[in-house]
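User: I need a structural model of Methylthioribose-1-phosphate isomerase from Methylobacterium soli for a docking pre-check later this week. Nothing fancy, just the predicted structure tokens so I can convert them on my end. Input:
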Amino acid sequence: MKIDGKPYRTIWPAADGLSVAVIDQTRLPFAFELRRLAALDDAAEAIRTMIVRGAPLIGVTAAYGLALAMREDASDAGLDRAIETLAATRPTAINLRWALNRVAATLRPLPSQARFAHAFAEAGRIAEEDVASCRAIGAHGGHILGDLARDKGRPINVLTHCNAGWLATVDWGTALAPIYAAHDTGVPVHVFVDETRPRNQGAALTAFELNAHGVPHTVIADNAGGHLMQHGGIDACIVGSDRTTASGDVCNKIGTYLKALAARDNGVPFYAALPFSTIDWSLDDGVAEIPIEERDGREVSHLTGRLPDGGFATIEVVSPGSPVANPAFDVTPARLVTGIITERGVAEPSREGLLALYPEHRRAA
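Assistant: Understood. Predicted structure tokens for Methylthioribose-1-phosphate isomerase:
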């Protein structure tokens, strides 16, 4: 995607061939800054502190992180330590573990001196696959939005939650890819952007992306979505996912479940958009089995923003001394999901629906 007319991805090999560059998403939307990741600890910190975020991008960053670790210690013990370090950074997004397992499987048969170059190349392949997957998700989901606009005979309103655009992937995005595809082909689409407390990824990141791409949009408070649905103001919801079970349960940013309940009550179609690497074929019951990351309560109790003079300040917004809980994700059961938009097409949210698109998992499932 483009920033000020220049195309960017969220992660790419640096000119030295020994490190990678990323967009520092903690600085958006007010500052566009790049960070260099040159070592395992750099990659782990970037994932943990959400310099990079979004399940697909976390996976690609972890893959590059494993490659960077091989520059420091390419022994089997070094490989195992690097996997442990990176896997501990964000427990919910399955793409992270998937990418680590994929790269590690290719490295273990190799001599130590060959591991860095091979891992770096494999991480690059994972990145390219993510771009292709997201582009395909956009095409499949774009058809849904195009059909909806023709049926309505007017511009359509789509509700999003959190950020699942190109900033959450390598390029294009998951939930925003259909919106970009529809917009670019002339479909009249307007996006209602949930602010997405506590980290405000919708207000900060989704709005930043849509602004840059010229997509009409309006930022709303998280609790406004149900009201808009009751009054016919939302035609479809599209969200991303950090982990989706084999049965079609969708884990996404906290608050997604409430949007799905409101959508069901008001007859609004509710879609999740995600690549193959987000499906966890080992799980069936998302509510019971998906680990939910509990983040620092300070994300809820404090806000950082820009001051009128251009400076920045962090302020406290919760009663001093009150305890704070901060679960980062929730699970939307498959029964509330209209369809799962993947790079292979749109699946019914069920085991059989997903297996119809991914038959290679039928035996393992």
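Before docking, keep this in mind: Residues 112-152 form the longest helix (41 residues).
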